[in-house]
Amino acid sequence: MIDRAAVRNNANYLRNVRPIDPEEIAEYIEEGGAHPAVVRETLREEAFDLRLREREDGAFEPVSEDPVSAPGWAPAAFPEEYSFALEDLLVREFGSNWHRGESGDELREAVRRLKDDYLYGNDVAYDRVAALGYAIYHLPAYYATIGHVLDDLVENGLLDRTIRVLDVGAGVGGPALGLHDYLPDDAVVDYHAVEPSAAADVLDRVLDETGRNFRPTIHPETAEAFLGTDGGSAGGDAGGAAGSDAAGDAAGDADALDAFDLVVFGNVLSELDDPAAVVEAALARLADDGSVVAFAPADRNTAMGLREVERAVATPEAGVSVYAPALRLWPNATPSDGGWSFDVADNLDVPPFQRRLDEAAERGSEDEPGEFVNVDVQFAYAILRPDGKRRVDVRASDGRCARMADSEAHVTDRVNYLVVKLSHDLSDGDNALYLVGDGSQTVDHYLVCTRETVLNDDLRAADYGSVVFVENGLVLWNDDEEAYNVVVDDETVVDLVAP
User: Fold this and answer.
1) d(CA 282, CA 227)
2) Which architecture does CATH list for 4-62?
3) Are 264 and 352 in contact (CB under 8 A)?
């Protein structure tokens, strides 16, 4: 057994002097000596707590204390190394013509079945073929999504370069790979994935492509078991974990019980029996300054389901705040509208594995190509924090604006609102239409721009999640949509309050 305390002590001394060489530390350990390879592995296992990163030359150096800065996340394509890893799995399973014949039909049927299950809210089950089909169809877009969501935290310096992550329902690895590429090269990540299905085999393979300072452990159990909501003890089965860099049983168990800086629920809430209970349990495992990040496909059912979970968990009594995007602008307010809100980013290029599967499909004369192509990056998301922080610290006041909860009393009146922009333009090219909210709304509210002027063009220019002040908007009731339309015209002023 190596003297771990001696390794730590020597590393802490050398960190302020020069890069830490495992061979040098091996020479300093007197009792019994130590092989440099054993010292190196010990340093890897201790790297997170010591805030050390391993360099390409095998030496270790301190991680910067500066928070993660914005990387300019705007992926145009799914990275080739990850595409090759997925195709490697497909070739191993089905041969080089995996996209043709019986195997291609199996994969296409698996994709169709998964799409239907999500659409109709059915229980989703993953055998090996289903997991590979899921990876082909969803991996690229889910890879891109997490970076766009993390931008909200990074803009306020709330993501550290040494970070312990819990990825609940990690699936085939989209969020994991996106997180890896989003973070800077000098970050050290203690990554824990909870994934009980056959998707874990795909996850394990694609994680092989991550760097030496991204330290993965896969816990092959349900979210409920890992977080203790099934009646058992929380902590996870770290001893039975897969993953190339999992530490020993004792170290894994200890890590699993530590607080997490980031808990990710990527496209999994709709698959849980009691998602609110699982998110509450995850919040209990969160560091005081940590974040729960949840995102879901933009379709109506999953997007509204995510918002229901957010509203059930982020209550004044629980002390949990909505950091972004659906800010509560009125104190102690909780919205109760439909909540179908989602962001949209640039599409990705079609990856080769999607093109192959799609082109090999047999189609009738009326069937359009593209059934097995999915490169749209559209997602609903929520970021929750236990420390009360919000992306922008802006509040509404009765003296300046009306509450959306009181819009019924203002129909045909011109009023002021402070709102969060919760959609891109939803119109078909006529009058621009934007979903908005202030955290008090009981039904949907839309800003309808019937005449853009220099005094209201901030509405069009504002990004998703921005806060704008609407002065002199005309409140109307839309019977067909059962929603309020607030008309923005040449008598209306719109000012960007917080981008």
Assistant:
1) 7
2) Orthogonal Bundle (1.10)
3) no
Name the token pair of 385. Answer: 């924090």
What is the torsional sign of CA 258, 226, 54, 46? positive
Q: Would you identify the CATH topology of the domain 404-498?
A: OB fold (Dihydrolipoamide Acetyltransferase, E2P) (2.40.50)
Contact 226, 219 (CB under 8 A): yes
Burial profile 113-145: b = 16 or more Cβ within 10 angstroms, e = fewer = ebbebbeeeeeeebeebbbbbbbbbbbbbbbbb
Q: Could you read off the pLDDT of 332-358 as tens digits, one per residue?
A: 899 999 999 999 999 999 999 999 999
Beta-bridge partners for 296: 380
Complete DSSP assignment for 208-235:
TTS-TTEEEEEE-S-HHHHHTTTSS-SS
Give φ, ψ of 336 to 5 degrees: -140, 20
CA–CA gap between residue 317 and residue 330 (Å, rounded): 16
- 6 burial class (0-12, 13-18, 19+ CB within 10 angstroms)? middle
* Distance (Å, whole) CA 175 – CA 177: 6
Other Cβ atoms closer than 10 A to 329: 25
Q: Which of the four pLDDT bands, split at 50, 70 and 90, describes residue 258?
A: confident
HSE value, Cβ hemisphere, 13 Å, CA-based, for 227: 27
| Cα distance between residue 313 and residue 259, in whole Å | 19
pTM listed for this prediction: 0.93
Euclidean distance between CA atoms 190 and 63, whole angstroms: 14
Q: Which residue ranges make up each domain of the chain?
A: 4-62, 80-385, 404-498
Are 444 and 406 in contact by the 8 Å Cβ rule? The answer is no
Q: Say what percent of the chain tops pLDDT 70.
A: 93
Q: In the structure encoding, which two tokens stand for residue 95, read together?
A: 């041969």
Size (the chain), residues: 499
Contact status, residue 322 vs residue 314, Cβ threshold 8 Å = yes
Q: Which residues pair with 469 in a beta bridge?
A: 418, 495
* DSSP per residue, 112-160: HHHHHHHHHT------HHHHHHHHHHHHHHHHHHHHHHHHHHHTTT---
Mean pLDDT of the chain: 92
- Residue 255 confidence class, pLDDT cut points 50, 70, 90: very low
- Strand 286-297 relative to strand 377-385, pairing: antiparallel
Are 420 and 327 within 8 A, CB to CB? Answer: yes
CATH 3.40.50.20 fits 80-385, yes or no: no
